[in-house]
Design goal:
Four copies of one chain form a homotetramer. In chain A, strand 4, helix 4 and strand 5 form a beta-alpha-beta unit. Chain A has an eight-stranded parallel beta sheet. In chain A, 58% of the residues are buried. The termini of chain A are far apart. In chain A, helix 10 runs antiparallel to helix 12 and helix 11 packs across helix 12. Chain A is α/β, with parallel strands linked by helices and 300 residues long. The interface between A and D is large, with 39 and 39 residues.
């Protein structure tokens, strides 16, 4: 367990996609090439094996392999946050340990969700407490109701925030009132990260410290600029960038999903490549619409 | 139809509750007393017959009577926004006209919602267009999915924003990315109001101009102060007030509902009084919990 | 209050549509013509001012006028069930009394729903109890979550079933396990009606006694035949009709809604006519698709 | 691929729970003991590694091990249906092959669900088609929206029903109209199984052939008796059993979940044992309430 001051999560983290070859196997060469590109951008680090990494379509070995590969390419000072959530506490603890072994700095633990109606605040708190107790690296809670159908209630977050090994939360639900309330009521060193670029500026305004956003795979510079302008008190400048990006953010998240994100990456010159089925790649008309949106957002 | 520059909605509007006597009849004396109190606060005006006014529990005549009574008490320079939404276009047009006749400055028109699955963007746009065409006063769109189960899509809002008689929207859904996107894509003079105090500051940060919030019935000064500090560039000060109020806001909205709001009004010295059934007044334990929350928020 | 044995609801009830003229006014002539046609069919009675009657788009006076008109045309032995639900208890009681005065035999009371999150089992039970206490005619509970977003929980239904003036429930949620549980646990003379033709046979099999179904506006004979065959123990025959009708039922309910139902009525020779806005009439392609479905169901 | 007549799924299948030791490891001894008991009951076979088997809390190796163990204990004439669904098509195909190798007769493939908003009918159909093409054993589709938040639309089911290697569907959604429509519109030899005991009789009435139900872990005899009475035309007898069991079924499914099911198994003398975290075992008061429900259902 970690009694030292927690790691700072202030900044932008792309939840990186997992590159695949045509065969469907992981494409580690392109992974490295993407990292070389991202390493040039003012990012705080990387989330590996998050929702945008198609982690549920990787087997456990692959999940660890990707984190290991990223850890080898990350320059000092950047963090690697590894998705290590499984549906069981037992499985989550095991995978979290493996992620720590291969070099991850923080473990991102999504709420278990298959048995939705049973995932009460008490059950989830108990789960996270066991994982945090057992983990050699700090835990970042992860609430993403659009994928899980589960909501990690604020009361559970507040209680978990005092655990010395729970460092913060990635909140992807988009409820800014909840984000504000968490900032207000959690332990002082607990860090709240926006889970999408669409509400980044709003989240900062109520006390979030950074963002893990699909859009950072293609717009790391722009998102970092929002943080910079915001910190400098230049709210109009920050707002201008924020508003320009919302539609593009929607396109690569709820709009076209990860197939859209990977297509956008291909358009901007980062390797997107194929998705794993059941995802289906974008058709021609969809790609055209997506390209238009990226142009309007000045990402192309 | 209105070709003049639209009315400014910059500021705080309490969606005032409708006071009842023990008999269940409307209590006009207490309504006047409340207004005298609110007239002392730095408010932009009043929303009458909104969700917090229990408008669905009033008959049509009562809805008009309350608006008339308020119009008589409002000092120059303050706006009266009257809820005039009905489930049918025909009924909405008729009631909007009556509201204009008794002095309302703006009509707040909630999305029809009973036949949820049929309320597509096209259907809702068509509804609002007819109402806006026929109304002698400007229309404020009203999206409140928690009550209606209907979402007024951004595409419909963008198209409606160019109608000369559609002045803005009260957005109560709490989706700040949507608020930002609306600010970005709607006509220049279209005004977006946050529909709840929980995400007020976040909404301002992305371009909203004001707020219609249940909480303004008991915290008009505090909410106005958020706007003042925000406009002065004092974001830390604005944030401090905002964060302090979130839990109280939850208590008088999704937590204890209008029974909670009225109980809170009674606690702070404004007349809350009884609710109309099916609402049931708060029990003792609930009142105690509510009082504690108001104290923590320094509203008591 | 009613201490006599309750009225039998065994049979088929069309929740009749409200015919409008092109002007949007109620078309009483066509209403009478439709009733003359329906009076030839083996129906148990009529539901007037239910969801399919566009009751939320009628004003209160119109709601009463339609019930009055129907009562004058209904032959002895058929029941008139009048929708009298309002959002407030007070309004519901008042309208229920008016419905009784103009001749309705039973009042159909939909759950209040605007303040969804507040409509707990306790609140709804309290509402219904007041209405049932005050009503001169028996009350039929009405659960229709697709429209209301509210679920009347089985516990509340069980408790209300012992009220001498609560005669039964129209259950439109489609949850047959709930229907079975209600049959099993409610008072002996409590009558459960399926609220849609799609699950009629299944509901009968677990103890429902009849049906209030949009489809009965165009397929009263067929639905009555399902009941007849079922009662005769001819389950294969009943099933054949049931399965044939499901897609047509979907088309005039969740598929094309009331615009679809009215278009289908026009196709089969009953007067459908225009809908009230915000509803929009079916386009050509939709009508063609609908006609094909009716042909397949042998309703055309 | 299978060109022979499909396997008959007429009958009752318990989706067996996975027994664990106190240590959390799989308890194969108790698994065998449970099977010896179930082998005495008139069951058609077993579902292994379904939702009630906590399959998401097993690793892939464990999932295969349990199926292998069951296959060794199953007498001739009984089917083993193995859950082999993964979030990716690739993973599902691989696991399905492993299940076939260890002796499973049929593979139960749940809809992928993590990326809910992307799981359109086209995407799901494409997924199932690839899995069915590649599988050496027949595929049983599995729709369970309460867990997945995804609905496998009837159109996709109808199209998939003509695939020679798609044998049927386990439909757990409880929508009997959908079950009827599937029976009506799918290929003739496609078999529909109710996915819960709560709507078993209703499903049979519209053409389902059997049931996979959590409750069969404790009430296999009773559920088989419903099928027997139904087939004999003894609908009143079938209904009496069905209605008696609904509340107990709710208790071991949506009520107390798998912790409740395992507690109930312990009460009736089958080994339930501990659950894997994040599930938490039932408390004393919950066990008492559960016992009362089982007594009322005459299962104790």
């Amino acid at each position: 367990m970690n009694a030292e001051p927690p790691l700072s999560l202030h900044g932008v983290f792309p939840p990186i996609t997992t590159p695949f070859k045509r065969s469907g196997d992981i494409d580690f060469q392109h992974l490295v090439a993407n990292l070389e590109r991202w390493n040039q951008q003012p990012l705080r680090g990387y989330v590996v094996g998050g929702s945008n990494g198609e982690f549920v379509s990787l087997n456990t070995e692959e999940r660890v392999d990707v984190v290991r590969a990223v850890c080898e390419e990350v320059p000092p000072g950047r963090l690697v946050i590894a998705g290590s959530g499984m549906q069981s506490t037992r499985g989550t603890i095991e995978l979290t340990n493996q992620m720590a072994e291969v070099g991850a700095n923080v473990a991102l633990v999504v709420t278990p969700s298959y048995y939705k109606s049973m995932m009460s605040a008490v059950v989830l708190e108990n789960h996270y407490r066991q994982v945090a107790d057992a983990s050699p690296i700090p835990i970042l809670l992860y609430n993403v109701p659009a994928n899980t159908g589960v909501e990690l209630e604020i009361e559970a977050v507040v209680r978990l925030s005092t655990h010395p090994n729970v460092i913060g939360i990635k909140e992807s639900g988009g409820n800014v009132a909840k984000i504000g309330a968490m900032v207000h009521k959690t332990a002082e060193d607990f860090q709240v990260l926006a889970g999408s670029a669409g509400f980044l500026l709003a989240a900062l305004e109520v006390g979030a410290v950074g963002v893990i956003a699909a859009l950072a795979n293609i717009a790391g510079n722009e998102l970092a600029e929002i943080l910079t302008q915001f910190s400098a008190g230049e709210h109009d400048a920050a707002r201008a960038i924020q508003l320009r990006l919302i539609e593009a953010n929607t396109a690569v998240t709820t709009g076209y999903g990860i197939p859209g994100l990977k297509a956008a990456m291909d358009m901007v010159g980062t390797y997107g490549g194929p998705v794993r089925s059941p995802f289906m790649s974008l058709g021609k008309a969809q790609k055209k619409a997506l390209r238009r949106i990226l142009v309007e957002a000045r990402l192309l």
